[in-house]
Amino acid sequence: MEDHLPQSVRVERRPVSEHESRSANGPDWDRYADEYQATHGAFLGDAGFVWGPEGHTEDELGVLGDVAGLDVLEVGSGAGQCSRWVRTRGGRGFGLDLSHRQLQHSLRLDEETGVAVPSVRGTATALPFRARSFDVVFCSFGALQFVSDIDVAVGEVARVLRPGGRFAFSVTHPTRWMFPDDPGEAGLTATQSYWDRTPYVEVDDESGVVSYVEHHRTVGDWVRLLAAADFRLVDLVEPEWPEQHDRVWGGWSRTRGLLTPGTAIFAAHLGTR
Ligand SMILES: C[S@@+](CC[C@H](N)C(=O)[O-])C[C@H]1O[C@@H](n2cnc3c(N)ncnc32)[C@H](O)[C@@H]1O
């Protein structure tokens, strides 16, 4: 859900390793965090749980189910808004994020709201927790589409969940990959293959260094990734754009949202066998 493109950056499509993805995205989120929180903080709510730019909340959708009394981990927690919501509902919410600056915003909101979310800096592909530590793991547009080794990340979620644990995550709806990331009419014409998984890469023109990466998985890829890690898919929510909602967030807009899905929320339970 990035919506910035500095002028000195060129866009490419090419394979990138996990190391390259992480080395780019950590510093990128550090640079972008202040603007991100200033632009979207009020929409997200300091202790609010929004699943995506359509504005649907966990209170409305109930994807996670009751979290009271449960150990809940948010991967790619940013400023911890969702985990703070979990805490207000009686869950023990914990955050993990790659970006130091995002976590500083989380601390700021801890102090401002009086609801603290214990959080750690880390990456989705190496969760710093013992096996079977959590009842619920979730990501609201956090981490997963920034990770190259996605099988490792999903495996890590399975490892830290207790048997029967719940995993839910929102990502850019896979069908969006076909369209230019443009909130206007131009964003309604398919220009590239849905099946082309080559990552989106931003490269700093002067230094040649990769400065931002996003990865694409099809709906089928997600289903197979979950099944391979012993998850049972229980829902795939495709939130509809609310008729009156007129907020633009990067490539998400009313113009596109009324016609095509922008967000996919996968919900799964651990343990199929
Ligand atoms: C779009 S933000 C979402 C944050 C929060 N859920 C929200 O709605 O504001 C994505 C977050 O994922 C984090 N992130 C990116 N790559 C990550 C990784 N490999 N491991 C953990 N977090 C990562 C970023 O630092 C950023 O805070």
From TrEMBL:
<dbReference type="GO" id="GO:0008168">
    <property type="term" value="F:methyltransferase activity"/>
</dbReference>
<dbReference type="Pfam" id="PF08241">
    <property type="entry name" value="Methyltransf_11"/>
</dbReference>
<dbReference type="GO" id="GO:0032259">
    <property type="term" value="P:methylation"/>
</dbReference>
<feature type="domain" description="Methyltransferase type 11">
    <location>
        <begin position="73"/>
        <end position="169"/>
    </location>
</feature>
<dbReference type="InterPro" id="IPR013216">
    <property type="entry name" value="Methyltransf_11"/>
</dbReference>
<protein>
    <submittedName>
        <fullName>Class I SAM-dependent methyltransferase</fullName>
    </submittedName>
</protein>
<keyword id="KW-0808">Transferase</keyword>
<dbReference type="InterPro" id="IPR029063">
    <property type="entry name" value="SAM-dependent_MTases_sf"/>
</dbReference>
<feature type="region of interest" description="Disordered">
    <location>
        <begin position="1"/>
        <end position="30"/>
    </location>
</feature>
<dbReference type="InterPro" id="IPR050508">
    <property type="entry name" value="Methyltransf_Superfamily"/>
</dbReference>
<keyword id="KW-0489">Methyltransferase</keyword>
